[in-house]
Write a structure and sequence with these properties.
The complex is a heterodimer.
Chain A (H helix, E strand, L loop, with lengths): L1 H7 L6 E5 L25 E6 L2 E2 L6 H18 L2 E6 L14 H6 L4 E10 L2 E10 L4 E11 L3 H17 L8 E6 L6 E6 L6 E2 L7 E6 L5 E6 L6 E6 L5 E5 L5 E6 L5 E6 L6 E6 L6 E2 L7 E6 L5 E6 L6 E6 L6 E2 L7 E6 L6 E7 L2 E7 L7 E2 L5 E7 L5 E7 L5 E6 L6 E2 L7 E6 L3
Parallel strand pairs in A: 1-7, 2-4, 2-5, 3-5
Antiparallel strand pairs in A: 5-6, 6-7, 8-9, 8-31, 9-10, 11-12, 12-13, 13-14, 15-16, 16-17, 17-18, 19-20, 20-21, 21-22, 23-24, 24-25, 25-26, 27-28, 28-29, 29-30
Helix pairs in contact in A: 2-4
Chain B lengths: L1 H19 L2 H21 L10 H11 L20 E2 L9 H16 L5 E7 L6 H21 L7 E7 L10 H7 L1 E7 L1
Helix pairs in contact in B: 1-4, 2-3, 2-4
The chains are: A mainly beta, B alpha+beta.
Amino acid sequence: MDRHDNIYGNSMKILLLVLLLAVPSVVVFAQDGYIEVTAPGNRQLKLAVVSPRSLEAPSNMETAKQVSDVIAFDMNMSGVVVAEGRIQTSIANSALGDVDFASWQSAGFDLLVKGEYSSKDGRLTAEFRLFDVLSRKQITAKRYLGTTKDLRRFSHSFADEILGAITGEKGVFTTRIAYVSTQTGNKEIYVMDWDGYNPLPLTKNGSINLNPDFSPDGREIIFTSYKRGNPDLYRRSLSNTAEVALSNRKGLNMTGSWSPDGSKIALALSKDGDAEIYTLNKDGSHPVRLTVNPALDLYPAWSPDGKRIAFVSDRLGKPQIFVMNADGGDVRRLTTSGNYNVNPRWSPKGDKIAYSRMGGGGFNIFTIAPDGSSDTQITSDGNNENPSWSADGRFICFSSKRSGGDGVYVVRADGTGQTKVSKGAGAYFAPVWSAR
Amino acid sequence: MKNRMIALLAGISMVALLAGGCANTEAVKKDEAVVPTVAAAKVEPAKPVQPAVQPKAVEQVKPVQPEVVAPVAPKPVAPSKFETVYFDFDKSDLRTDARDVLSKNAEAILKAAAGTKVQIEGHCDDRGSAEYNLALGERRAKSVQKYLTTLNVKAENLSIISFGKEKPAVAGSDEAAWSKNRRAELVVVK
């Protein structure tokens, strides 16, 4: 500890100890006005991510490289920096704080991540630090205690810190994406890390399972399943296989969407004739009908303040997106271009609604402001459906069928950086991004 | 209109006949009814839809041939397969050919054992969003249900379900496949 104090002085204030997942929302903020984001000459900041040094004798290059790969991938996807993974140069016993800033600077880097870890009997200790090469200061540091299987998550968590230090808002790289996949032959629901790793099957009922949505705390999902014959809405936790039927009313119980405060679920029910939008309490009780229309009304999407709901309706002939108050009042048509617009999802910042438009035989992802302005095409390659926002509004995930490979893709909200993240075979549908 | 009246009258008299007949004649009538239904099902071009059912249908044709055997059958047999109804793209209203098919299906249902329950499955082709197609498939099932009730099939014996585009009858992404996938199937509920 003395060593750290001597070398860093005030920097110690921002060394955080993080135990397991107890990641408090303490923002490690930038020092000395070190905020967004352009390097001299308007080039992007360059970040070197050095693979961490193992404190045990036979160091495992694979493990170390995994850390730098994860952090570099996350940071490159953010679009905020250009990141490069670097293999640890073998400077024996080089302390974490010993940095040859001059040579990193002459190599063209503005930022540097170093780390060290120790893995013993399944226990993992890791510490990562972010340095500003130009001012030769430590910007942030974090220490993690857990088990060896937490290594990717700790790496994602430090990428969250890096993004927070640079932009003032932490990243969402520890979040997950739930989706439907046919890899077993049936549509079953899975969840994976946002970057496609650690896919985990949730349903295994051999029936048809559709449209998962996360609870705001990320611990539960709702989805529609035919497992008992009728398309009913179910709720389950991610850590427990028990599934509770939330709504098994006559007809369709579909496209359930959890309200931002977690208290309600909006969905489409056809119990009164045709598909209409309702809200339920989160236990499935007290249906309140919001739309009254002989047309099909479905796919409700809450605004982040819970006051408005976007939805799909074919009341004017073809499916279009409409917005109404959460009590069903003040219905307005949102999309006016294209004659088949579906799958609305409101951005967490409230400033945009993502949706998919069918035209020329295929779907593409668009975003539009809630007042109908700024209608913008995000994708143009292949068939792209069911957009869902990351919790910081930086990314949109969607399902895609294209020559470059079917799967779940992630794109920045401005349309740049399209990347396939799912790893497995089979078709992918209806991805949904968890909250933080 | 005239045709419909005739169909209606035929339906009513059929019901009357069934109601009035003793148990034996009832059984005979119903087994006879199986013949046209099965034959119709074989003519239908949707063979790949349910290939598993095909051998069953053939088996059922055999015992009908010796007419004498029919009355021995312990119970009236429910029709095992109905003709499928097809729709235009993004439409749920019934084409003329669909109405003809439904008239035959209604007849078969009316001749089946009292209380035979039939589920109408609405399906869509693979264009359009999965969610919208679920709602559209239900609309198709509903319009079939409505039409069957005008042909005197009791509403309480009919239920509907939509599978949207989740269960295509045939694979493929061309009009040949699409036109076979935009459909409503009638299935006896066991």
